[in-house]
Write a sequence for this structure.
């Protein structure tokens, strides 16, 4: 056969019609990772169930044997029981470029010794940090060493920072933030799908075909929660999930890159050999700043609504009932009332109170000056007091505890009052419980902007509405 024809045939062999499915295998590094927000066992159970649920028969767990102990051993058994294979990810998980070559190889063999006894162990080595060495000596030293030990390079074709997304998630859990798992799922799936598409684009451009891909993932909580969603998304977009053992049969497995630029995975390295620029081979999914921005843009986290504080619950409890105060000090022709009355009752749900202020005149209840609503605003994390009165007057503001006095808090209320005819003005109330009863004092800002005392009332609880005294 002439050479031209042979090349043509080889070309045809690899020709893929647009209908042919692209293929990708799933691999998880750093297994069996210790407890995080999920315990190690929970994570393993969840992940294995998720993989099974979407019909993924085989993935590879690259084990860092420093994580293997009496407790975590069982998880390796679980992996292989489920049909998955186990690869070598070193013992101590060090950078090759920062480690003596000999020591690095000894560390690899230490892991080998621990992993060999597992039935589903396969001699594939995944370089920690995808660091295959930054100089010829170490790079070639490892190529020779792996060959001598009967190992294959467990390379990836799709690099990404799934571990960084997981660390953002773990931080949010620790900070006790509310986490929207649907949004986090969308972020995880979108970022990984983008990274996969990006790498496949590079392959199409520089290798002229879509190879059997190997996706780098980690044994982390996000994988446990969302791996099934990622698989379904891939399948819906024309991808097929294959076994890593199948993926490592792709011709690129035998194509050792010449470049030392191997930290982005094999496709990027081969593209670099083919003349691609480094900067064109790194995706957004490998940029911590951009991922953090996406994490924020997807609005994955929010502050948890805070529970009502104890002082406020106590305040509402003590308010319930009817209060009465003398208006003797302020009684006038315009304001002929001898007493004011204040009634507080529970609003629906018993987590807010409703109040009403009226006057007593000639022994009769009269005037219906103010209606109050006092409630907790979880977003503002504030106790709020809203009141509506005559002439469309509305006062709205917050209540806060100041210092402890006589076993209860002195409370300060700051409200803005406005009406259709009166410009907005601030008003302040100070409430303090004394042996005599509740003393309320109102203030308004004077011309210098200082709080100026207006009126002060002493309120007493009245179980029964008494007639005018
Ligand atoms: Zn690792």
């Amino acid at each position: 056969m002439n050479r031209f024809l042979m090349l043509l045939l080889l070309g045809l062999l690899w020709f893929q019609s647009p209908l042919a499915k692209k293929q990708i295998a799933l691999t998880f590094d750093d297994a069996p990772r210790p407890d995080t927000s999920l315990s190690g066992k929970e994570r393993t159970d969840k992940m294995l169930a998720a993989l099974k649920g979407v019909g993924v028969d085989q993935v590879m767990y690259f084990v860092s044997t420093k994580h293997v102990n009496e407790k975590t051993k069982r998880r390796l058994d679980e992996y292989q029981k489920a049909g998955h294979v186990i690869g070598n990810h070193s013992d101590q998980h060090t950078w090759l470029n920062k480690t003596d070559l000999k020591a690095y190889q000894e560390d690899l063999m230490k892991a080998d010794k621990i992993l060999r006894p597992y039935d589903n162990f396969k001699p594939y080595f995944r370089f920690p940090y995808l660091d295959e060495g930054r100089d010829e000596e170490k790079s070639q030293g490892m190529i020779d060493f792996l060959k001598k030990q009967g190992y294959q390079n467990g390379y990836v074709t799709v690099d990404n920072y799934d571990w960084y997304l997981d660390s953002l998630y773990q931080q949010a859990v620790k900070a006790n933030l509310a986490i929207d798992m649907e949004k986090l799922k969308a972020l995880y799936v979108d970022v990984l799908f983008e990274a996969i598409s990006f790498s496949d684009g590079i392959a199409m451009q520089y290798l002229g075909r879509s190879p059997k891909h190997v996706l780098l993932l980690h044994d982390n909580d996000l994988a446990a929660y969302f791996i099934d969603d990622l698989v379904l998304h891939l399948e819906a977009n024309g991808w097929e999930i294959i076994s890593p053992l199948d993926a490592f049969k792709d011709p690129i497995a035998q194509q050792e890159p010449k470049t030392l630029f191997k930290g982005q995975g094999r496709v990027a390295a081969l593209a670099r050999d083919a003349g691609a620029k480094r900067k064109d081979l790194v995706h957004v999914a490998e940029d911590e700043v951009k991922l953090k921005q996406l994490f924020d843009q997807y609005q994955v986290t929010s502050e948890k609504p805070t529970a009502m504080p104890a002082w406020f619950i106590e305040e509402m409890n003590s308010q319930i009932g009817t209060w009465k105060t003398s208006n003797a000090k302020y009684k006038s022709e315009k304001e002929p009332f001898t007493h004011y009355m204040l009634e507080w009752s529970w609003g629906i749900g018993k987590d807010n109170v409703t109040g009403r202020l009226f006057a007593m005149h000639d022994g009769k209840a009269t005037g219906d000056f103010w209606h109050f609503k006092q409630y907790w605003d979880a977003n503002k994390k504030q106790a709020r007091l809203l009141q509506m009165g005559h002439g469309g007057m509305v006062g709205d503001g917050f209540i806060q505890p100041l210092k402890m006095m006589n076993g209860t808090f002195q409370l300060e209320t700051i409200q803005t009052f406005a009406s259709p005819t009166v410009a907005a003005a601030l008003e302040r109330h100070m409430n303090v419980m004394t042996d005599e009863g509740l003393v309320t004092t109102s203030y308004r800002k004077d011309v210098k902007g200082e709080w100026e005392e207006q009126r002060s009332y002493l309120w007493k609880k009245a179980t029964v509405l008494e007639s005018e005294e």
Summary: The first helix runs from residue 3 to 13.
